[in-house]
Amino acid sequence: MMNRRKFFRNGSLFTLGTAFISPFQATAAPITTDFIDKNKKAKNIILLVSDGMSTGTLNMADLYLNRKNGVGSNWLQLYKDNRVSRALMDTASASSIVTDSAAASSSWGGGFRVKNGSLNVGPNGEEHLPIWQKFKKAGKMAGCVTTVPITHATPAGFCVNSKSRNGQAEIAEQYLEQGFDIMMGGGQKYFDAEFRKDKKDMYAAFKAKGYQVAKTRSEMMSTSNDKPVLGVFDEDALPYSIDRNSDEKLKENIPSLAEMAQKAIDRMKNHPNGFVLQVEAGKVDWAAHGNDIGGLIYDQVAFDEAVKVAIDFAEKDKNTLVIITTDHGNANPGVIYGKYANDNFDNIQKYKHTNEWLLNNIHPTSTLSQIKEVVDFSNGSSLSDDDAKAVLSYYDGLHKEEGGLYNYKKLPFKAFAEMQQKTNSVGWISMDHSADYVELAVFGPGSQFLKPFIKNTDLHYLMLQAAEVENKF
Ligand SMILES: [Zn+2]
Question: Using an 8 Å Cβ cutoff, are 121 and 127 in contact?
């Protein structure tokens, strides 16, 4: 009885109290977005996409940074500080619950799901106007930056219509025709007359239309912000971040994703009608296809640095909607339980190169000790004789070979990742895309429109709604 009465007394005190503070509010960090009026129109939009980023990739990059520096990723810091709206997103295409990047980008870019492989072209040939063209028509500037060819599926899905994502040489011509304000990444193959089947010099064509063409990091840095920019920094994709970080020449010649994002913002930020920008970490997907943990984590970290560039700008600007997400999962990696899981995972901090770099430095004539030396140099941990022998058996061109997307040289990525698991505790479910619902975070004006579970196509309409651009084209 006594306890019960006490309970009621406390209860009534509680309800009569003038200052009701919920335990959640009391412990929440200060919310900086309070200074940004979410309900106003978004003048600018920056969409950041880590291509093929399984949730495990986001988690591992945060764990990696936390254990190395005591501070996690910028992306998850936005969650910890309660500064974003957040959702899970269903990434299916018209043809499969497992999308490819062309259909995924088309669902955001065109507002309709299309079949895997096509860019904003429906099953009966119907074309959906790509969103960066809609924003251009509404008077905004528009651009894309990426670590893969700029003509690749994810930027292309915001910019053009094409029956096939493979028509990259033709996609380069469509970019010129549309006159986007800044386009940067890799893909010299699709611009250089030497490489193109039709021998067209796309660089000359862009210059004739008033573009500044940059082929190195320093050329990019010295472009002026009052003219459009085409930046093409490698023959195909740009090098992985971890390989770039270990190579002074690459660091000098190739810009990071964060540097490209900063340049694109600087180029477009003074436009009176605002701008839209896509920033893609395209090689997070390629690393997942190769079960290449060094490629994966360090490119996700490089993506996270671009997230900071976008958020820093949006905080100052207060009129910018920032969307941070991925187009689909890939290979669903994760750290696996075990006695040495912590130390093993921390071994990744010692990695100097990707498995791609490492496996390309093994040759049919390599000795076992040479193989072990390459692994030791690249990973900071050694390989057993048996494992070195097993790796070498893929190089004689007779016995075994691996296939897989982006594995043109048929290197033993899967076999090596399985050996590496003994010293890094990272496992993978496959070497391809997954149907997982993916993480989506939205910051700034327009973020109030995000519901906790959306379809990829919903994002198309959210961008138009936030910017108050009518879907009338
Ligand atoms: Zn992929």
Answer: yes
What is the Å distance from ligand 1's center to 15 Cα?
A: 55
Query: 178 C-alpha to center of ligand 1: Å?
Result: 26
Domain that holds residue 382: 351-427
What value does the mean pLDDT take over residues 292-303? 98
Rounded distance from Cα 68 to ligand 1 centre (Å): 29
Between the alpha carbon of residue 375 and those of residues 16, 247, 371, 383, the distances in Å are 68, 17, 6, 7
Q: Could you tell me which of 257, 307, 278, 260 has the C-alpha nearest to residue 131?
A: 278
Interval between CA 330 and ligand 1 midpoint (Å) = 7
Q: What is the secondary structure of 77-107 as a DSSP string?
A: HHHHTT-SEEEEEE---SS-SS--HHHHHHH
Q: Is residue 294 part of a domain?
A: yes
Secondary structure class of 263 (helix, strand, coil):
helix
Digit-coded pLDDT (tens) for 175-227: 999 999 999 999 999 999 999 999 999 999 999 999 999 999 999 999 999 99
How many Å lie between the centroid of ligand 1 and the Cα of residue 293?
15
Contact in structure between 331 and 288 (CB atoms under 8 Å): yes
Domain count within the chain: 2
Expressed in angstroms and rounded, the spacing between residue 324 Cα and the centre of ligand 1 is 18
Q: Is the domain of 282 the same as that of 244?
A: yes
CA of 100 to the centre of ligand 1 (A): 6
Distance from C-alpha of 339 to C-alpha of 361, rounded to nearest angstrom: 32
Q: What is the pLDDT of residue 400?
A: 73
Alpha helix stretches (DSSP H) within 17-54? 23-27
For β-strands 275-281 and 44-50, DSSP reports them as parallel
